[in-house]
Amino acid sequence: KSESSGTSLTVVLLFSLQQNNQVVGVGSGSTIVYAVDRLAERVRQEKLNIVCVPTSFQARQLILKHGLSLSDLDRHPELDVAIDGADEVDASLTLIKGGGGCLTQEKIVAGCAKHFIVIADYRKDSKALGQQWKKGVPVEVIPIAYVPVSRAIARRFGGEAVLRMAVSKAGPVVTDNSNFILDWKFEHAQNWKEVNTAIKMIPGVVETGLFVGMAERVYFGMEDGSVKIRD
Ligand code: DER
């Protein structure tokens, strides 16, 4: 990820945070780090009064590290804007998210925001899901159900849904919600709206990393430091 694209992204993006007293959903991953750095700088410089709602343990740490005002959905169930990254963005702004394993809280927070804004580097910009991102669609599952859910997905939609194993810990990745993640390596384009609903109906599925019709705008940080916007 080029540093310049991340920084330029957040400069452009955060000008959209004009009003004071905004409630901001803070996403997860590596690109959001630039946004939170810049947000904290503006809060200091312009004495902005904003509160931040995290989408993960990582996001919570980021908010606290910058001395930003930490809140939650109990106190702020309606957010003005949520800002987050994405693993891939298709032509209709359908996203694959969850590469960092935080898809469930990210989708909850994005769903509570008036505006859901995505920041990503140019490599996430795709014509169709699966063109750039090869790790599949993350699906968060209740641990006891990961095998039946994996079989149900493969049987109904093809491909293979593989349990995400941890790298620096023996065994599978465990999410902030104490669940497992299946990465569904799909074989062909689907009706993502239908597939998202159908997968969520499988007993044991908590959430999918398909964000359909949620992103209002995507800012792509380009290699030359410029920013491309897709609505
Ligand atoms: O896991 C996630 O959903 C992250 O937001 C991911 O999609 C983007 O992570 P990145 O900014 O590190 O590429």
From TrEMBL:
One of its GO terms (cellular component) is cytoplasm. One of its GO terms (molecular function) is ribose-5-phosphate isomerase activity. Its EC number is 5.3.1.6. GO terms for biological process: D-ribose metabolic process; pentose-phosphate shunt, non-oxidative branch. The lineage of its organism: Eukaryota, Metazoa, Chordata, Craniata, Vertebrata. It comes from Pygocentrus nattereri. Pathway: Carbohydrate degradation; pentose phosphate pathway; D-ribose 5-phosphate from D-ribulose 5-phosphate (non-oxidative stage): step 1/1. It comes from the Eukaryota. This is ribose-5-phosphate isomerase. It is an enzyme of class 5 (isomerase). It catalyses: aldehydo-D-ribose 5-phosphate = D-ribulose 5-phosphate. Keywords: Isomerase. Gene3D superfamilies: 3.30.70.260, 3.40.50.1360. Belongs to the ribose 5-phosphate isomerase family.
